[in-house]
Amino acid sequence: MSWSAVVKFHGPTPVAAPNRIWVANHSSMIDYGILNSYRPFCVIMQLQGGWVRFIQTNVLSGLGCLWFNRNDIKDRQIVGQRMKASRHICA
Q: CA-CA distance, 19 to 28, in Å (whole number)?
């Protein structure tokens, strides 16, 4: 089995700049893969299970990505602190 795609961007090309973020709600791993065909992006996402967790913790951690656990009430504060501490990585 193999996957392939032709990615065609419409509109202005995203440009990285200080204090600039892009927000996408309910994005899938496929959406993230397509976005990364343009350039690497760090993301904040829910920590998943199985093979997706392996990718999150072993591959995406090198890009400065942050993840959270929806079942942990205190995790929202922790992720907020990590966002403030690591925003220079994503800029």
A: 24
**DSSP string for residues in 22-48:** ---SS--HHHHHHHTTTS----EEE--
DSSP state of 14: P
CA–CA dist 75, 79 (Å, integer): 6
Q: How far is CA 58 from the centre of its chain?
A: 13
pTM to 2 decimal places? 0.58
| Chain segment 9-56, per-residue pLDDT in tens | 778 777 777 766 666 666 777 777 777 777 777 778 888 888 888 888
